[in-house]
Each structure stands twice: as C-alpha cells, then as structure tokens.
Specification:
The structure is a homodimer of 541-residue chains. Chain A is built from 15 helices and 26 strands. The first copy, chain A, is globular. In chain A, a hairpin with a 3-residue loop joins strand 24 (458-468) and strand 25 (472-481). Chain A folds into 3 domains: 12-250, Rossmann fold; 363-431, Luciferase, domain 3, CATH 2.30.38.10; 435-531, ANL, C-terminal domain (GMP Synthetase, Chain A, domain 3), CATH 3.30.300. In chain A, helix 1 (12-23) crosses helix 8 (233-240) and helix 9 crosses helix 10 (272-284). The first copy, chain A, has a 9-stranded mixed β-sheet, sandwiched between helices. The first copy, chain A, is of the alpha/beta class. In chain A, 27% of the residues lie in helices and 24% in strands. At the A-B interface, helix 1, strand 8, strand 9, helix 7 and strand 16 of A face helix 1, strand 8, strand 9, helix 7 and strand 16 of B.
Chain lengths: 541, 541
C-alpha cells in the first residue's frame, strides 16, 4: 500500500506567500541608521523579495549558489532572507563582529560571488574586499546616502517588475541558508540549512509551549540577523503573520526600550547581556516605559541566571530560556513549566525556567557518558548528543583535521556537557573544555557563575580553571561589580557557600572592569584563560 | 552546494516517544461502557502501544498492511492509533455508523486481514463478518466481560514484554493511516495518510492561532476516532503532552458536560449537533456545571451558524470554527480573528468566526471559476481547490468510473463551492450539488440555513432545491423547531428577509420533527431531496 498524499516540498517560498496572502498589512518596522523608524508590511516584503529574487536570477546567480549579506537587522535584510532563497540561491549571513580575515575566509570557503552590504558597513567590508575574489557588491542605502558608482545600488538592482516571476522548482532538501559557527577555537565552520529544516523549525518553534507565536504578537528581533538566522524567527514570523520590529544597529538598552514601548512589543529575543542592561536600566527608571502587559523575552546564546529571570520578572517581563546552536536550525530546547509545576514556590519555578529546557518537537536528545547513554536522573553528566531533521550531520567543506562530529549511530556531538532529569529537562553543565577538573572531580563553572551572579552587587561573573600543583585545576572567579556597588571576595564566597561542597568553591575572586565576550555575547573564556594562565591559586585578590 | 542537514524521517513514532519522554504522567482518561472512568497516561500508552506493535509484527502483519479498528474513543483506540503505525502497519479506522455492507466493502477494498473490535461493538461486527475474508478478529474487552474463545483477546495478545522492540525503518512517505470518506453518493473512497502528512498536520494544527495546543490543556476528543483520525488530535496530543479525555460511546450532552467539569477540559472537539445539544442543556441549567474558565470548543464536520457561536459564548464557551476533509489530514482551515478585528462589534466578530477561516500552514487554497482562478473579493464563487503536503492526490484503489480529482496543474478538487475574501478568509457556500439554481442564478442553501437557524425558535434547518416549472429550481426550507417553541412560515420568512434578495427567499417552509443526518452529523440532503422530490413550490405548509 502506498500513501495517496501529494508530494509538495516544504519551502521558504510558502512562508513568504503565506505572509502576503493572509497578513499582508501586518507591519515590519525598522530603525534606520539616523534612528528614524521605517514602516513596511508583508505585502511589500513579498513584492520586494520577489523583485530581488528575479534580479538575482537575471544577474546569473544559479540555484545552490551562496549570496552573502553583511547587514544589520532591517526590512532590507528580511528581503534578503526571503529573496535569496526564492531565487533558489543560498542566504549566507556574514557575522559583522568577526575579523575581516574570518569574513574573507567564510566568503572563500562558501564560494560566494555576490554580497549585499549595508552602506554603513562598507568601511568594514572594504577591509574584507582586498582579501576576496567576488563579482558583485550590492550596496543597500540604509542611510539614504547615494551609493558610490563602483558598487551596485540595491534599490536600482531591484527596480523592476516581478509579477510574473516564478520560483525555481526545488527539492525540499535543497540548501536555503548557510551559517558559520563563531567558535572560539579554529576557523568558523559552515552549516547549510535546507528549506525543509527551516520550515520544520518554524512550525516547531512557534508552538504554544515553545515561543507561542501568534499573528497577535509584535516580535522584536534583537538577536542579530547575521547570526544563526536570528534564531529562525524571521521565517516563523512570515508564516504566523506577527508584526516585526528590527533595531538596526541601535542596540543600547534605552533605544531598545523605546521600541518596545512604541511598537507594543509582546516578544523580544536576545542574549543575556542585552537583557541584563535592560534590567539595570529598568531598575533605575521603573516607570519610564509603558510596556505591553505580559511581554515575554526569549533568552538564548548563553545561559540566563535565575537571578536575571527573577530580576526581569519584577518588571513584569517573562523570560523564556532557550538553547540552540548553529548546527541546529538553530533552536534546540526551550524551557517551560508543566501544569504540575504551577503550584511550586516561585523560586523553584525560576530554577526550572533557568534550565535549558525541553526539546522542541522533532529534536531528540541524549547524554552520552564514557560507558554509554546516561540515565535521565538530573545528575549523570555526559556529552549532549542530538538528532533530528533540524540538526546538521556535519560541515560544508570541512577542514581535513576536523574530527567527525557524528557518532557511529548518527547522532551529532554538541561538545556540551549536560544532564537530563526525569521530567526531560536538559541542563548544560558546561562546554567540555570549560569544566574544571579538581582532584579528579569535575566542577561546573556555569553553576558557580550563576550562584555568584545572584549576588545583588555582581553584574557579571565568569569562572575558569587555573592550574594547581596538587589538585591539577582549581576554579578562579573573575567578577565585574555593578557601578557603585562593593563586595569582598570573602563575602562572595560566604554568599555562595551554602550551594556547593567546600572543595568546589573558588580559591580566589578577581575583580575586573569588564569581561571579554564573543561576537555573540558569550564569555570568551579562551581570552580569560590566557590572561590568567600564570595565576597561582590562593593569591590574595 | 548541498544541505548538511540530517535525513531523519518524520514519523508517528517520534510523537509516541515524545509523549512518554516529556509528558509521561499526563493523563488519558476514558469513559467505559458502564460509565465509569479509567485513567492511564502517556507512559503507559507508550508501553502498551509498543506491546501491540511487537505483537502485530510477531503475528505476521507486514509493513504497509492495513489493520482495522471498529472502536469508540478510548485509551485502547489510542493504543491502536500509535501501535499499528509503530509496527509499520496502517491504521484503518472503520466508521461504525456505516452499514455492515459498506464496512465490509472498505475491509475488502483496503485488503485488511486483521481487525480490532470493541467488545460492545461485536454485535455490529458480526453482521460484517460473513461478508468479509479476514484472518484475525482481536476483541478489546472494554466492558470487562470475558472474550469469547473464537476471537483473540486483545489483553492476552499484548501481554508481553516490548522493551527491546525496535520500530521498522520507514520512509516518511510510508502509509500510516487510512480513512474512507463517508460521502452521501457512491461507495466510500479510501485516503492513505503518510507518516509525513500526520506529523506535519500535528505541528500545523497545534499552532497558537490554530488550536493553540499546550501541555497545559485538557482536550476532550468528542469527535469520533473512527472518523478522519479524530481531526488528527490524538497525534498532536502526544507531541504536545496535553491531557486527553475520551468519551467512549456516551455522547449525550449531560454525559459530556460531566466530563468537561470533572476533567476541567480546556478544549473540546466535535460537530455542531453535539454543541447544539450542549447549548440547549446549558440554556436550561446554566449553573449546574463548573466548567474551566476560557474553555474553547472546536466545531467542524459542518458549518457552525453564528447563532450557535453566540449562544455558546453566552455560557463563556469560545467556539473555534474549522473546515476539513478526509482528503486532507484532515483540518484545512480554522477561523481566528486578526488583531485588526479585535475592536469590531462582537456581531461582526461572530460573523468572521463563523467563516471556514484561514488555511493552516502548509495548506494552499484557491477558488476556480469557469474562466480560471477567481479574485479574493469575498464575492466571486467557484470550486475550492487545495494543495499541500497534507492533501491527498487521489484515492486508494479507485473505481474506474471515478473522475480524476486532480486538476492538470496538481490541485485537489474539493467539490465545495466557496469564496475567499481580501483578508484570506475562506467561506464555503455549498457543496456543488447543494447549490440551488433559480432562474439562472445561484442561491446558497448554507446561507439560508444559517439565517433561519438564527431564529430562537429553530433547532435545525436544511434548505434543498425542489424543481420548479418556471425557475428550474427553488429553495425549500425544512425546519425543526425547539421543543415547546412555535413560529410560522411567514414569521420565519420575515425574519430572514432583510438578509436576502426577495427571489432568494424559500417559497415554502416545512416543519418536521427531525432532520436526517449522515454518520458524521451533516445534513443528509440526498435523503431530504428524495423525500421532497415531488414537492410543488408554493404549497401551503
């Protein structure tokens, strides 16, 4: 017996069509370089994305060819998100926080011949240009200034009729977008997402217990569109028909709060450092902004401490914690309460919500120890391995020395160390390389960091391993205090002591003005380790 | 360039695994034949469904082989929903309201060798048995009585360990379930759903603007599991982890309301006749049941009149209107308000909510007239045609005389006549064969029915065409009054007159005690047409 169902491929073009057909007047709002607000909608997005697609096809871009973008979050970038795959080409988002050398490496590794660049990012791109061999630079005049004649003007490029443009027929496994990891070790590595993966991810991540995305939402995409497809939200948004707000390069807490108020944002997405700045500003001026009731914020990129969740909750802002990777599409888990949790004390609820959470549908998780799969008991640690149609099986053009990331039975090795509890909640302990091995026992740097950051005087804290003649490694805490606040090392140690065994406590607390972060807001522990590589444990702070 | 994503097939087994892994203790409640309540959960469902799968494989059931069920809604039927596809076999739900002859036809057409039967349905099935050639009847002892030795006892059949059972490796396009249409014309026709279609439908239909299915929900599946997979909800429920309640054969309004109260149901699904009976009982005893705040009801199967939506709203029950077909998976559209509607007067909101609505993601709609696709203006009528990975392209073993239901460009012809308005809301005018052609102009029987049913004295009304010497056809209204209420034909005509052109009004209103319905609750217009075939328009009622 055979199924009688139609063979219709999943495609990003369906999402674009759906946004136009059913939510054409729903708004897409961008903040321009001069801070003014530009408004468009899904109907105009459809028209302009198709004009871009038609222009790319006419310019000779072939199905499967990567087209780069070096752009901030704006409706222009959204046009590229849909227009490039609609031409059958592959959206390659270039991370503008990488070095020109790394950006050039990515362009070469992907084989990109065409790049779209925001005009205000041309000074950066002109450092990349001498290092690459490309055919065409299309400059997007977001600032309103004329485009230099040596480049293609985006607005002229798409100034055409595309009413009769027909999408190329594509298999759903055809490439749709390409993202490079921003790892702290080695060269960036490319993941190629298929149309199928992007559509499945959009469906799964929008579900009520996941991001709960409705056409009644106004979603603020603070997470950069140049990084892991802005968590896939632009694709989901067109399918669902929510209003979208895009901050351009204005990422300060005050600017963000202004948009949250003026657009009555109901869901905002970003990394913890962004929400920490917002929390600090709201703590100072709690009544300045009239935010939409029940506004929720998705936090990803790195773990949100329970103290951050509680701190934002005091301002009526509900944090949704998530975990993802470039190697997914990219969201893997989201933390939500089950009905049996709703009567727990709020502190316990914060603790559950601070976990990385439950996998979204179509994701499978397991914890692999040295002797095989670990039990789901919330204690047994091992490497987190994942599987599913929204997970990569490897990298594009991998370097020959890259170890295979797939296990022999086809699971992807994340390199994260985690536990899963009996209810299925996953919790990242650490990156494999961030664990501290003291006297043969593991200490989790993340748990120490969360405990230290719960102290009201602490703005940020990172814990790294420093070598020790007797114990092999010992934890060192590197702490940034809030402006004007004071606390001593002993006070901090006493503060966290109830939560840890004595041998797990950092020997030393070092106070610094700022911590180094990766381009995506994670602590850059490799830099900290280099800075403190000669630290002798027990040194007075 | 190729995508780097894993090739992991979409499969119903993923939904079963997910229900167990993350929502194992969430409840599945069944009402037994003696009206008592049996409680189980997703963890036990997983275990028992896998035991059924292992037993079927050991009994020689092959991948792709249909296994029939003749069962009411219960946790046993749910085991079959997951256990049969987990064996690689095909769930064939037999509609117990069909004639024994039609059931036998379906068993033969599908090629079924094994059937699961509720013991209380054996008297019916024993009328089918002499007409079919099958190997094994597995009797499910839902009543608790011993199973006659000539049949296989379900509980003994699955009494085994299945810890090590491994699902067969299946392509996602492999068949998973099979449903037959219950059309009023000709033999039932089989649609074969794939694992892919069922998983995609589960994702799409659960979205916030669709059924908004969360693990915090308690869902009452009143719509029969022997009909179009109970709208796909059992599959979505395991993925989402909501509590489920299944009514057995106790379908009276009082029994249903008792379960809604005891299980604190948040979403109930059924056909309009069920909700009409519930509305009438709540009108009489508004304070008897303490229902969960914000409880919502999905209505499908046939159109819900705005008056029914308003009537249930008065009891705090929110109606969600939907449209589907066996030939989909099966939900095609659902009606929801957009943000721009929330400030309209409630009557206008009811009118929008009574439309068939917007397609769920992955569904495409168009209206085809004689001269091609019709504009989306809310007025232009034509045949509704649909397309997507959750739509059938035809039937299993079709009879040679069945016209092709696919257009030359690959869209499925629904046989429904509809409009789509500028905002994308689809509205069914009629089945092609239910339209009334009077003096060369079309009259919609559905619009007349909705208008008549808005009268407080009317319980149900159906409008059919009767032949007319001058106008070819004229509408005849056949009306059932509410017990104890009275209204005359002239009063009804005056009541609806403001909404129609004079020539569209029925010449006659006939009052009857009851209307004939199909096995799935739709008006059986073919029977009415036969009954009134010699009616002469203008006859005094």
């Amino acid at each position: 017996m055979h199924s009688t169902m139609m063979q219709v491929p999943l495609s990003v073009t369906h999402l674009l069509e759906r946004g136009r057909n059913f939510f054409g007047k729903h708004e897409i709002v961008s903040r321009l370089p001069d801070k003014s607000i530009a408004r468009t909608n899904y109907s105009a997005l459809y028209d302009r994305a198709r004009r871009l697609a038609a222009a790319l096809v006419d310019a000779g871009v072939k199905p499967g060819e990567p087209v780069g973008t070096l752009m901030w979050n704006s409706s222009w970038h959204l046009e590229a998100y849909f227009g490039i795959p609609s031409a059958g080409a592959v959206l390659l988002t270039l991370n503008l926080r990488l070095s020109p050398d790394d950006i050039a490496y990515i362009i070469g590794n992907a084989g990109t011949r065409t790049v779209l660049v925001d005009d205000i990012l041309l000074p950066l791109f002109e450092k990349v240009l001498p290092l690459v061999d490309i055919d065409r630079v299309i400059v997007v005049p977001t600032s309103g200034a004329p485009v230099a004649p040596r480049y293609t003007d985006y607005e002229k490029f798409i100034a055409r009729d595309a009413t009769d443009f027909r999408y190329p027929e594509l298999d759903e496994n055809a490439p749709c977008g390409m993202c490079y990891t921003s790892g702290t070790v080695g060269r960036p590595k490319g993941v190629v997402h298929s149309h199928r993966a992007v559509v499945l991810h959009a469906l799964s991540v929008s579900l009520p217990d996941c991001l709960n995305l409705s056409c009644h939402d106004a979603v603020f995409v603070v997470t950069p569109m140049f990084h892991v497809n802005a968590w896939g939200i632009p694709f989901a948004a067109a399918m669902i028909g929510c209003n979208l707000a895009l901050p351009g390069h204005h990422m300060g807490a005050e600017d963000l709060l202004d948009i949250m108020e003026s657009e009555q944002i109901s869901l905002a997405l970003g990394v913890p450092t962004i929400w920490m700045a917002i929390k600090q500003l709201l703590d100072k001026q709690p009544d300045r902004w009239k935010l939409r009731r029940g506004m929720r914020m998705m936090v990803g990129g790195s773990a949100a401490a329970p103290s951050l969740i509680a701190g934002l909750e005091r301002h009526g802002l509900a944090i949704k914690h998530g975990w993802g990777m470039t190697e997914l599409t990219p969201v893997g888990t989201l933390s939500w309460l089950k009905p049996e949790h709703t009567r727990l004390p709020v502190e316990q609820q914060y603790e559950i919500r601070a976990r990385q959470g439950l996998p979204i549908p179509l994701m499978e998780l397991r914890i692999m120890g040295e002797e095989g799969p670990q039990p789901w008991d919330g204690k047994s640690v091992g490497e987190l391995q994942v599987r599913g149609p929204i997970v990569t099986r490897g990298y594009h053009n991998p370097a020959p020395d890259e170890a295979d990331k797939l296990t022999s039975d086809g699971w992807f090795r994340t390199g994260d160390v985690a536990t899963i509890d009996a209810e299925g909640y996953m919790r990242i302990s650490d990156r494999t390389k961030d664990l501290i091995k003291s006297g043969g026992e593991w200490i989790s740097s993340v748990e120490l960091e969360n405990a230290i950051m719960a102290h009201p005087a602490v703005a940020e804290a990172a814990v790294i391993a420093v070598s020790h003649p007797r114990w092999d490694e010992r934890p060192l805490a590197v702490v940034v205090l809030r402006a004007g606040d004071k606390v001593t090392a002993d006070e901090l140690r006493d503060f966290i002591a109830p939560k840890f065994a004595k041998w797990q406590l950092p020997d030393d607390f070092v106070f610094v003005d700022a911590l180094p972060h990766t381009s995506t807001g994670k602590f850059l522990k490799s830099a900290l380790r280099a800075q403190f590589k000669d630290w002798v444990s027990g040194t007075p702070a």
